[in-house]
Amino acid sequence: MRARSTKLKQDKKSLSKAPAKRAKRMPHAERREQILTQAAEFFSEYGLTGQTRSLAAACGISQRLLYRFFPTKAALLAEVYARTILGPFEGEWFGDLTNRDKSMETRLIEFYSDYYEKLLTRRWLRLFLYSALAEGDMAPNYISSIITKLLDTIVDEAALELKISPPENPDFKRELGWTLHGAISHLAIRRHIYHGPHKIPHTDMIKVYVQTFLAGLPITTKHGAD
Amino acid sequence: MRARSTKLKQDKKSLSKAPAKRAKRMPHAERREQILTQAAEFFSEYGLTGQTRSLAAACGISQRLLYRFFPTKAALLAEVYARTILGPFEGEWFGDLTNRDKSMETRLIEFYSDYYEKLLTRRWLRLFLYSALAEGDMAPNYISSIITKLLDTIVDEAALELKISPPENPDFKRELGWTLHGAISHLAIRRHIYHGPHKIPHTDMIKVYVQTFLAGLPITTKHGAD
DNA sequence: TTCCTAAGTCGTCAACTGACGACTTAGCAA
DNA sequence: TTGCTAAGTCGTCAGTTGACGACTTAGGAA
Question: B112 and B208 in one domain?
Fold first, then answer.
C-alpha cells in the first residue's frame, strides 16, 4: 500500500542494466526548468503525495539535487501549481468572445474548442482535481474571478444576440453560464479522468453543447425574475 | 509534508485530556460496521492514502484492531468502495423515469433532485474522484453500464415526448444524454469539491438544466445522421 | 464466583520518506 | 596544465507507515 509512484524507482538493485550513472551537468536555470516540467507531469499522474525520490528518478537526477532548487516539497508543489494551473489563465485569452463580426454560436464553438484543447488537458485536470481535493484551495480566488468574468461575458453576449435581457440576479446569470461551461468541463473530466469513450470527436460535442445552451437560454432566463 | 490526516491523532502526547482509554467492547459485526462507516467518511476526506493509525483514532480504537477485520488496508478500501460508491447503484432506482403519466420535464426534475441529494454528496464525490484519479478504476464497468442505460432511457423518453426520433448512432445518443447528466454532475462537483457558492438552490438549477436539455434536443438530435 | 473466549491493546519490525551535511567531479578560465 | 566553482551524489537522520506476534481484559456462561 505504498504510493504508486514507487514503482518508478527502476526496481532498485535488480538488474544492473541501469547503473544510475551521474546526470549530465546542466546550467542551473535549465535544470530547474526541466524539474518543473517533469514535476507537473509526475504529480499530475501520481498525486501530490508522490515521492520526491521517484520524481528525482524520473528526472534522471539524485533526490538530493531537488533540494538545491526548492527548499521543501511544498515549495516545489506551489511552483508547479502556479505554472501549470494558474499560468494558462494569464492574458486576454477570451477577448474574442465579444467579436460581434461572428455569430455567437461560432464564437462559442471556437472559444471552447480552444479552451478544451489548451486547458482541459489530462495533466491540467488531474493536477487541478488533486489540488481541489487536498483542499489546499491554493488559489481559488484567482481562477474563480476569471471564470466569473467569462460566464458573465458568455451570458451577456448570448442574450444580446438572442435579443433577450440577461437575468437581473448576477448569481443566477452565472449559473446559466455554467450550463455550458459545466457541460464542457464535465466532458473533459469524463474523457481524461474517468477514461470514458472518445468515439464522438470533442469538437462535435462542443457544438452540441453550444447549441443546447443557446436554445435553452430564452427559456431559462425567465427564472431570474422569480 | 505528511499526510494531512495526521493531525487527527490528538496531538500525540500533548495534554493528557484524552488518556486514550480502552474502547468499549462491541460485537464483531457491529464494530466492523462502525469501522466501515468511519472509513468511508475518513478516506473521502483525507484520500486513499490516509493513514490507518488516523482512521483507528477516528474510530476510537487501536490501529491493531483494524487488522482483526481486514487483512490489509487495500481490502478495507475495497469494501468501503463497494459499499459507498457501488452500493447506491443497486436496484431499480430510476424506473420512474418511464412513468408516462407525468411530463418528461417533471420526471427529470424529480429524478435528478433525488439523484443529486442521494448520490452526488460530498462523501460520494470525493471518494469517487480519489478512486478515479488513483486509476484503480475499481469498477468502472459496473457503474458505466448503469449510467449508459440511464442515458439511453433519458434520451429515448425525451425524444418520444418531443415527437422526434433519437439519433441512430448509440454513442452519439448517449453523448446527448450527457448534456444533461454532465451538467448536473458538474454542478455537484463545483459545489462539493470546488466549494463554489450555493446561492441558487440546486433544485432551481436542476430545473434550468432539464429545460435546457429539452429545448436543445430537437436541434442537436439532427447531427446524428451526419 | 470462576473461568473461558473473544474483544481489544502494546510494542515492534522493516520499509518508506522528507530533508540535509559532507563529499565528489565536470568543465571552464587563466 | 592547474585550480576554482558550481553541478551533482552519498549516506544518514528522524519521523512515518502498514503489518503483526504476544499479551491483557471485559463480561457472559456454568
Answer: yes
Question: What domain count does chain A have?
Answer: 2
% helix, strand, coil for chain A, step of 5: 70, 0, 30
> CB contact, 8 Å: B75 with chain A?
no
d(CA A16, CA A13) in angstroms, rounded, equals 7
Predicted confidence at residue B92, as pLDDT, reads: 74
Check whether residue A190 and residue A112 sit in a common domain. yes
pTM of the full predicted structure? Answer: 0.92
Q: Which of B109, B120, B126 is nearest to B147 (CA)?
A: B120
Q: How far apart are CA B171 and CA B1, in angstroms?
A: 44
Inform me whether the pLDDT recorded for B60 exceeds 90. yes
Residues A129 and A194 in one domain: yes
A153 and A54 in a common domain: no
| Range of the structural domain that residue A65 is part of | 5-82
Give the HSE-up count for residue A31: Cα atoms under 13 Å, Cβ half-sphere: 16
Domain stops at, among A82, A101, A126: A82
Q: Residue B226: what pLDDT?
A: 45
Q: Which residue of B has its CA nearest to A190?
A: B182
Q: Does A203 touch chain B (CB under 8 A)?
A: no
Residue B15 at interface with chain A, using a CB cutoff of 8 Å = no
Could you tell me if A74 and A94 lie in one domain? no
- Mean pLDDT across B59-67: 98
Query: Which residues of B, range 19-48, sit inside 8 Å of A by Cβ?
Result: 47
Same domain, A22 and A93: no
**pLDDT, tens digit (0-9, with 9 covering 90-100), for B8-42:** 433 433 333 345 678 899 999 999 999 999 999 99
The reply to whether B208 and B144 lie within a common domain is: yes
According to the model, what pLDDT value does residue A6 have? 45
Q: Which residues contact B209 (CB under 8 A, 6 or more apart)?
A: A179, B112, B180, B183, B184, B187
